[in-house]
Amino acid sequence: MRQIPVDTSAAMVMVAQPPAPKVKDRRTGELAMDMETGAQLMTIDVLFVLDGSSEVLTITAPQPAFNGEMAIGTMVGLTGLVARPWENEFNGQKRHGISFRAVAVTSLASDTSKVKAA
């Protein structure tokens, strides 16, 4: 299937929902695994802001690809982000969309910017 590279260099990206395990089968609760590495797949919702427009995107990445703090509002960098068009049919209903996958999701929060509670 075609993968389309996404340039994030001019975008501001922040965590909208922290990482959570990706579920492969909602009926059984089976978790999704990366077919190449065997690592558990995670999803993270990010607010993607570019040229005055914003959108919440769900990004999938292997669990080891998440580096640093991933609290809501944390600025993150997306390495190797690609968009993949998809299409399926379930119970006679055709569906389609775009999924996003990243090689790495890295927190851009610096250790010096964290405020310690007194």
Strand order of the largest sheet: 1-9-10-6-5-2
What is the string of helix and strand elements?
EEEEEEEEEEE
**What's the total count of β strands?**
11
Average pLDDT score: 90
Q: What is the terminal-to-terminal distance?
A: 52 Å
Radius of gyration: 16 Å
Low-confidence runs of at least 5 consecutive residues: 112-118
Helix content: under 10%
Largest sheet: 6 strands, mixed
Strand content: over 45%
- SS-derived structural category: mainly beta
Could you please describe the fold and organization of this structure?
The chain is mainly β. It has strands at 4-5, 12-21, 23-25, 30-31, 41-50, 53-62, 66-67, 76-79, 82-90, 93-101, 104-107. A hairpin with a 2-residue loop joins strand 9 and strand 10. The N and C termini lie far apart (52 Å). 14% of the residues are buried.
Task: Describe the SSE topology.
Elements lengths: L3 E2 L6 E10 L1 E3 L4 E2 L9 E10 L2 E10 L3 E2 L8 E4 L2 E9 L2 E9 L2 E4 L11
Parallel strand pairs: 6-10, 7-11
Antiparallel strand pairs: 1-9, 2-5, 3-4, 5-6, 8-11, 9-10
Produce a short descriptive summary.
This protein is an all-beta fold and 118 residues long.
Give me some keywords for this one.
11 strands, 118 residues, mainly beta, single chain, six-stranded mixed sheet
